């Protein structure tokens, strides 16, 4: 019986192509030709995308700052001035000793709290 070779037949012209040379080199050095470019792409992409991300957050902060500045201009106009003595006398004028407890009406199907 004949024994077949385990290697596939490749013509000598196929070894001259760039893809064939890359395939042979990749078999010998897989990390250098596949892993290292992948990791380099991730690291360099991070450095290149950092300014774009920073710009996004800076624009968002500017919008928030503009709203707060506009609101700050209109906040104190309609505000009533509070006097502590006046508030004290308002509370003192109320009769806090005579009050009546009123039960809140329950919604239909709600537990009334009595066991």
Automatic annotation (TrEMBL):
It is found in: Mitochondrion inner membrane. It is a single-pass membrane protein. Keywords: Membrane, Mitochondrion, Mitochondrion inner membrane, Transmembrane, Transmembrane helix. InterPro entries: Cyt_c_Oxase_assmbl_COX16. One of its GO terms (cellular component) is mitochondrial inner membrane. The chain crosses the membrane at residues 31-55. Its main location: mitochondrion. One of its GO terms (biological process) is mitochondrial respiratory chain complex IV assembly. The keyword Protein transport does not apply. Pfam families: COX16. PANTHER family: CYTOCHROME C OXIDASE ASSEMBLY PROTEIN COX16 HOMOLOG, MITOCHONDRIAL, MITOCHONDRIAL OUTER MEMBRANE PROTEIN 25. Belongs to the COX16 family. Required for the assembly of the mitochondrial respiratory chain complex IV (CIV), also known as cytochrome c oxidase. May participate in merging the COX1 and COX2 assembly lines. This is Cytochrome c oxidase assembly protein COX16, mitochondrial. The lineage of its organism: Eukaryota, Fungi, Dikarya, Ascomycota, Pezizomycotina.
């Amino acid at each position: 019986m004949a024994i077949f070779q385990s290697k596939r037949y490749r013509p000598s012209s196929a070894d001259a192509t760039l893809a064939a040379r890359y395939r042979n080199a990749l078999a010998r050095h897989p990390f250098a030709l596949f892993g290292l470019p992948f990791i380099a792409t991730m690291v360099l992409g991070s450095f290149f995308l950092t300014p774009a991300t920073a710009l996004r957050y800076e624009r968002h902060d500017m919008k928030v700052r503009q709203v707060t500045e506009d609101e700050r201009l209109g906040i104190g106009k309609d505000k009533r001035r509070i006097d502590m003595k006046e508030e004290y006398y308002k509370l003192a004028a109320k009769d806090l000793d005579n009050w009546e407890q009123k039960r809140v009406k329950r919604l239909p199907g709600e537990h009334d709290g009595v066991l």
